[in-house]
Design goal:
Blueprint (H helix, E strand, L loop, with lengths): L1 H24 L6 H27 L5 H20 L6 H24 L6
Length: 119
C-alpha cells in the first residue's frame, strides 16, 4: 500500500505543477481529463493513506504527524480549488498556488521527518 501511496503523491505533485503552469502562463484551465484524473488520484491518495493510518494505529505508533498532514492536505486542496477556478482573478490564482505549494512542501517535510511528539 505504501508504494501506491507514494505513486499517488508523485502524481498529485506533477498534476499540481502542470495545472499551476497552465494557470500562470496562459491563464487557462486544465483539460477535462486532467481535472478528472486529479479527482481520481486524490481519492486513491486518501484511501491508501487511510489504510496506512489504520495500520499505524493498530501498531500503537505515534500518529500526531499524520493528523498534521491531513490538515495540510485539506488546506492544499482548498487552495487548489480556488487557484484553478476559471472565475478566479490572477491574484487569487497566484495566492492559491502559493498556499497549496507551501502546504504540499509541509506535507513532504512531515512525511520525511515523522516527528514523534508533534503536539
Amino acid at each position: 500500500m505504501k508504494h501506491l501511496h507514494l505513486l499517488t503523491v508523485a502524481l498529485i505533485i506533477v498534476l499540481f505543477i502542470y495545472q499551476s503552469y497552465l494557470v500562470l502562463s496562459a491563464n487557462r484551465s486544465a483539460p477535462r481529463i486532467i481535472k478528472i484524473s486529479t479527482h481520481i488520484v486524490y481519492a486513491l491518495l486518501i484511501l491508501s493513506g487511510g489504510w496506512m493510518l489504520m495500520q499505524l494505529m493498530a501498531a500503537q505508533a505515534p500518529v500526531q504527524w499524520v493528523f498534521a498532514k491531513i490538515i495540510l492536505l485539506i488546506a492544499a486542496i482548498s487552495a487548489s480549488v480556488k487557484a484553478f477556478n476559471p472565475a478566479a482573478t490572477e491574484a487569487q490564482s497566484k495566492a492559491g498556488i502559493a498556499v497549496a505549494g507551501a502546504a504540499y512542501i509541509g506535507i513532504i517535510i512531515l512525511a520525511y521527518m515523522k516527528p514523534g511528539n508533534l503536539f
